[in-house]
Sequence to fold (565 residues):
Amino acid sequence: MALVCKERLPWYHRLYSSILKVGPIPKHLAFIMDGNRRYAVKKHVERIEGHSQGFDKLAEVLQWCQELGVEEVTVYAFSAENFKRSKEEVNSLMELARTKFERILKEKDKLEELGVRLCVVGELDMLPDSLQTLAKQLITTTKNNYKCKLNVCAAYTSRLEMTQAVRDIKWGVDEGLIHVSDISERLMDKTLQVPKVDLLIRTSGEVRLSDFLLWQSSLSYLSFLRHLWPEMTIWDFYGAILLYQQSYKYKKQQEEEHEEEMREDELMMVSDEINQEEALKMRKNRINNFIIKLNEKRLANCMNDS
Amino acid sequence: MTSLLERKWTSVLNQPIHHVLNVVFIAVHGAVVMWRILKLVVMYLLSHQIKIPTLRNTSAETMQADGRELAKTPLHLIIIIGEKEYNCDSIVDMLVWSFFIGIRYVTISSKSIILRNQCQIRFEERCLNLSSTFITSKTKFHSDYMFATGNQDFNVIFTTLKKSKAEFMNVCKEICTNKTRSSVIKLDSIDHLVKEKTGNILEPDLGLCFGPYYSYYSCQPWNIRLTEFLHLPTHQKIKYCNFLASLHKFAACKQRVGV
Fold:
């Protein structure tokens, strides 16, 4: 099964999506695709078959998201902790990923048509060389697509991502792009590769985040579904969206209060300055300039290695 | 001219469709709300059928027995209050239950600052009423992580949700002000600094989130990677049965840690 589904959803699914679109739709959705191995045990098939079915489910879920108008999707494909699994399983997972990435690269015209931008986030150095090259090729090939974004987290943990963000901030300070006084929660939000999440869905009934987007999902609506990932149905998905919509008012309130607190902290940072507004404006410009330079540096690293 | 007519017809046709979708949307949400209310009512009626004990009838021995029955007791419980107002009595109830069940560390993370002394006095009064062997010196209430020593049998730490990310950013500032090259910064060094700032207490294994929706409300992003999160809509007048049910749910969780 390809990543980009050619067939349209049945009419009754499209009708229900139209109904849901009357209300607020999460701009950024994250998925912890848990349960592939348990599904394989349940169906008496090989583990790798469970993971393959998991990929097929991902393609299906992306179609549901596209129908609803979700702008960004982040998926937890492979944790850095998963390298602790047996060598056989890790190798077969890497081989599956390599096959799928190659397939996705062949669909690059379709991705361009749909405006899908692909990013592979994580410690890419931990992946085999062939997979690293493919990942970087995917990033550079789709970098100009702007309609929607898919972030695939591979060899990833949130702590590793936060550590990299601290390194990037330190680089910014050493290069003179930002001051130490510019370091704030807002700067961290912008430095991390994955932005804030509106709705986080985890399958298989577990109620933890397992080191996934810990910073970005701090005010997200959490939805823990009992079905295993390959068994997830569109009605589970619609149910999560419905509950998100019912909590939207409270979530927005929390976000506004949080934004107000961040603004107060920023004002306190420049309280010694004579012209506070000018100081805030200069700070904002420094941070924006730093983020532009950081993104150029990240893209340059990708293009050099691919 | 033709395209203008076409656009006009499309917009005329779209209006009734949009109204119908609006009505159906409200009907669907209404049905979900009714179903959730019905579920709450059924659960409330069932709990009364089984006669779950309230705090007045719950003795120290009963709670200790309940703690022993749990397949797994959390070592560190974090109570996240995402509601605007807090109820001191309800918080003290949860602390008393945690103490007798055998939880060693409890962190209360809330939006507003909770008066530690007020909670401590009420907690000690209730424990002394429940158990004559309760020793005040074996429990410690901390108003901040910096003072948490962890030597007592029962440690309670009060902190605010606002501080959670700010603490991590302070670690980031500390790293950026020293002469270390950015390429040398490792996860372990950041972990060490964050643990120092949070009193070297072990990471929470269970988080009870109280608030209008299922979220952990910006709590301690570095420390919660393996925390099991359970949500209850409000901590106000929380019942022992609901608290114990959450602990049973936690006991049923299986951690695989990537393997």
Q: What stands out?
A: The radius of gyration of chain A is 20 Å. Chain A touches chain B through 58 residues (CB under 8 Å).
